[in-house]
Amino acid sequence: MTYRQATHDVPTVFESRERPLQDENFDGTVGGLLPEELVRKELDIPDLPERDVVKHFVNLSQMNFGVDNGIYPLGSCTMKYNPKVCDEVVSWPTVADIHPLQDQSTVQGALRLMYELERLLAEIGGVDAVTLQPAAGAQGEYTGIQIVRAFHESNGEERKEVVLPDTAHGTNPASAAMVGYDVLDLPSKDGCVDIEALKAAVSEDTAAFMLTNPNTLGIFEKDVREMAGIIHDAGALLYYDGANLNAIMGKTSPGKMDFDIVHFNLHKTFATPHGGGGPGSGPVGVKRPLEGFLPVPRILKRGEVYSLDYDCPKSIGKVRAFYGNYAVLVRAYAYIRMMGGNGLASASENAVLNSNYLKELLKGDFELPFSDLRKHEFVLSGRPLKAKGLRTMDFAKRLLDYGFHAPTVYFPLVVDEAIMIEPTETETKETLDDFAEACKAILKEDPEVLRTAPHNTARRRINEAKAARDMILSWREYKKKAANQTSA
Amino acid sequence: MALSECSLEMLQRLGIKSVDELFRDVPKEIRIDGLKIADGLSELELKREMAAMMAINIAASDMPSFLGAGVYNHFIPSAVKAIASRSEFVTSYTPYQPEISQGMLQALFEYQSFMAELLAIDVVNSSMYDASNSLGEAILMSHRITGGKRFLLSRAISPEKKAVARTYAKGADIELDEVGYDPVSGQVDLGDLKAKLVPEVSGFYFETPNYFGPLETRAAEIRGILGTKTMVVGVNPMALALVRPPGEFGADIIIGDGQVFGVPMDFGGPMIGIFGCKTEHVRKMPGRLIGLTVDSEGKPAFCMTLQTREQNIRRSKATSNICTNEALLGVVVAAYLSVVGRSGLRRIASRNIENMDLLAKRISRVSGFVAPHFKSAHFNEFVVTSKADPAEIHSHLLSNGVHGGHILKHEFPELGNAALYATTEMHTKADHDKLIEALEGIR
Q: In chain B, what are the domains?
């Protein structure tokens, strides 16, 4: 093992002694344009030379691991490589320096791109109409469930419940609750939806069933059409969480599986970079009968002219200002055009091949709940570690020492000591072999090495309990608490 | 799929003959035969095609534009772009493994710290999607704090924000009501606020500067009127370089958009929703928080904290559904504020106020125009009223290579022939000249 992350001592910018002298000559009223009672007196922001700022952030960046550093197999996160051309395109002034309220005649290129992206996503999702407005996957879910509510209200119905499997992403129940629904968790059976339990759970109070397919165990829910029948017979809608779409492009589609509403995570399936947590983008697609409920504005094309339409009386309104995370949309459009239809299908094929291959390499060393094929991801149990007094988290931390990002851990909740691995299609066999070798090597190591891992990262095991106890969430609070301690 | 040697080896290891067999668990009746999407383009072809497609957009650099209304054209220093393009930041995920993600975590802690300082409030989360999303979440949080099922919004906020607020309020079955503005100052109508402040109201949202540009001078009185109800204030954070922050007036929640600090206009997205609150409310707030702690060797370190509020742990009982946020833009904002520093920020903010004053005065001297319409101190945006129909003015300006302000006529009919003009440090005297000449040409 040769990995060693850069380790710098980088004080926060606020600790710099490069402070401006008290600028007594500064006119806080700006020549009398600001009334005295509005003039700010204190502002504790340092004045640093550009040289030091760049050093500060470059050194910080070296203490951060991204896909560009190596495999980042976080399950359900689809951390694939992000092609660089997509970032370059977004930096063009014709792309970046336009204002959302510009006269529509001056932004025809942007509107055309968004219109075409809607069509491309509709094809991939097997749906009829798409909105690009939601800023992230969770906001896509929120939009979708608002559409569910508007749909039922338009039928004069007030349904109370959203049903979802216990393997669902945490955003699903949170989004449903924010739209005012009670959430009914459905226990899984053999890693899949239990059809009998679903039948028993669904009633005239069911508004929607939320599902991702393949599910978060990476297993394809074969009976999805039967589930759709149960849901639709009850007058409810079927919602597709697109977090796992990377497994199925060109093989099947949410629309073909009879889903009514689907969200796409452009920052997963469509290779837009994740930026340490965002920005993402969560477009939502629907079947024709639900089109009228989509957020405003809709993008119209008449002849070769594109326009924004706000005249949609059934629309749920808006979930975000303007039209969505456009710079992310542009990257996704570039990615899809560069991949083409065949390229996207190949991406899914390779994602599934990589996942199954890595599962095959590792299943003997861990527990693999449920048999047979997986799609883009798989979930191991770290239970065998317990015999050595170790937990999955110890294993995950030790992986960092080998220069691999850890998989998602302790999710989904249905697997004890879960290790959720999604290698994506952009990793080579060589990388997967190396990763598997590292996993196996770690299991043979002295348990103490794991318990005290990581050793080769910028910081050692971090005291998360202390962070929650101390609650120092800004430099301002740090200063206050330090001052209190001194005076006490 | 054309198989590589490696793929073949992998299939063999799986005991599978073809890639298609990997999808044998997808039932035939739901299979599709590929996608009806054109074949892929080379990088060169892609760039040519997209350059041609985008060339018909008219960028701010090619046409002086006086649009604002929530998205502003400010200068972005090269150092900020360089920092924001570090691929270790760009290509990382949410920092679930803090030991290997200290760079992003510290940068976000610094973002939180810059915002807390500017707003003068204890806690700021590491971002929401945009200011409108911050407002929607603030309405829900206000309900969590005081329990009321009704919320008051100032009328002087953007229709975009109102629309998003309506969506979020509907989800939680919260009723919204509107508080008017003073027709002379453009600031909150305190009489109307008192009248609308019925017992079931949980809180009140107003802005400084508001949608029309005026800075609110009576925040302390508003605090007094609200009593124990939640005071939610929206800001343009750049103005706070010079203007007393709402935190000093006891705001419970402060929101805004960080786009002004180094983020391109990008046709309105992504932006970065600022969300701050008093410490006493922290467990009720949405979004991720980065906290300071130590590692096992006692070295200072950062990690996500108070996650028990969040969807990944609390599921349907979470304070919000937000997961992905706008983290990279938090790095951008922290880098921007570090690069310009206190002196630079105050200079830029002063320049915005001066430019606004200059432009408003010049527009007022054009026959048939009044600017600013409201008699208050402004930051960089103001309402222009005119004898002529603003739609006609807009067309005339556009044909003269100038993009005029945002037309308010339909959103706020009570203002008559009105438009909202913004000017920033990006506008030169020549840009102002071009606008004024074009306005003078209106008959």
A: 60-75+341-440 (3.90.1150.10), 78-335 (3.40.640.10)
